[in-house]
Q: What sequence folds into this?
């Protein structure tokens, strides 16, 4: 095979039997490649053609003009290798990482390195937080992103913490006043007050758990 600088488009979508050796040849023969689809056929045994992070890095290191790259379903490629690919492809405009085992680390690398990116597919990349996604350029169309459960719980905890701070701020004057009264006095909360609404909302969201401070007392009937 001879050098083919005019070849800019290669699609191996669902192909089988190609491996790092194939990628090494592509790197040698097609330096001007702009489109490369390496989507793995998830229904075929992983033993039928294995692409490693090293092989992938070889091709991205040689083909600096890549604008489209699809490495979806390559769950055997580690995040460090994917980050190396990201670093070596500054011209990427479309990047498909569906089902790849990446975390916020890869997303932050994309934010720093891929300034021309317009499309990012993150289907079933379930270890990524919304906080990391927010660091991406707002012009990037992020498709199929679903925040990880840890990220959702962290966001919920932060929301509760903020509301809890509001409750503390609103009731601190009442608490100081209460300490000066006799022990039989209760603090009355206006049923139309904003604070009571916040408490009710938090209680309902938390499965009826009482999240208000212990010193917040309700008038007994």
A:
């Amino acid at each position: 095979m001879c050098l083919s600088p005019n070849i800019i488009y290669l699609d191996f979508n669902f192909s089988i039997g190609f491996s790092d050796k194939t990628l090494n040849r592509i790197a040698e023969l097609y330096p001007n490649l702009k489109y490369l689809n390496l989507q793995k056929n998830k229904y075929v045994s992983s033993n039928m053609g294995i692409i490693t992070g090293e092989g992938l890095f070889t091709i991205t290191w040689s083909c600096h003009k890549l604008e489209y790259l699809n490495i979806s379903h390559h769950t055997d490629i580690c995040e460090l290798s994917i980050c190396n690919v990201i670093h070596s492809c500054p011209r990427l405009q479309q990047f498909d990482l569906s089902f790849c085992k990446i975390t916020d680390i890869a997303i932050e690398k994309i934010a720093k390195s891929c300034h021309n990116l317009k499309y990012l597919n993150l289907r079933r990349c379930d270890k990524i937080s919304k906080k990391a996604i927010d660091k991406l350029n707002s012009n990037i169309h992020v498709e199929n992103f679903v925040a990880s459960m840890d990220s959702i719980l962290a966001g919920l905890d932060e929301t509760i913490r903020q509301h809890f701070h509001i409750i503390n701020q609103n009731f601190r004057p009442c608490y100081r006043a209460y300490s000066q009264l006799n022990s039989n006095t209760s603090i009355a909360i206006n049923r139309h007050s904003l604070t009571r609404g916040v408490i009710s909302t938090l209680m309902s969201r938390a499965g009826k758990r009482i999240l208000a401070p212990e010193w917040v007392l309700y008038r007994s009937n």
Remarks:
- The beta strands are 9-11, 35-37, 68-70, 94-96, 119-121, 141-143.
- The chain has a mean pLDDT of 77.
- The longest helix spans residues 149-179.
- Residues 83 and 109 are 6 Å apart (CA to CA).
